[in-house]
Amino acid sequence: MRSPRCPGRWLIHSALICVAPMVADAGTSAESADHVAVSAMAATAPSAHDRPTIPRINRRVPGPLCTKIEAGFQLALQRVHEVPACADLFTELGADGIEVLSKTLYYRAELKMEKRVCPHAYAYTLVGGAPTWLCRRFAWLSDERAAAVLLHEALHHAGTDEWPHDPHAAPGSAINELVRHACEF
Question: Which DSSP string corresponds to 83-141?
């Protein structure tokens, strides 16, 4: 079904599907014409690198933020797929960058986070956790900067810690520079 938040986005729950609009005839209601028929197409699932990947965005994420997540996500996937040094950021952690990005769940930052975290950051991810909370101001980033932020957060998902949470870890600015350099931003 078409996403109500991001124009042109399809909510897909299986690996490979075919989506075909149902045509309303004289005997069906206009409401039924808005539904789509979805059927499975493949008996064997393609690898994560072969199938199209879309971000997993919570339905409560507002339109402009959702649109920026999608743009940044696609660019981040492209860099991990095409730039070996970018993929190596994840490999060094024993992870696959495309898989980590694909498993990330994107949420709008809650009001409490907007006040506490968002004045100093664009997003927040717990180390080893799949959810990433995005601040409202993330929507105003360039696509390249949005992709870099999503990659930074994906590294947290894969296990990279950050100072001051871990006094022995690199500060966020050093992780940003690492992503910028390795992923050619």
Answer: -HHHHHHHHTTT--HHHHHHH-EEEEPPHHHHHHTTTT-SEEE-TT-SEEEE-GGGGGS
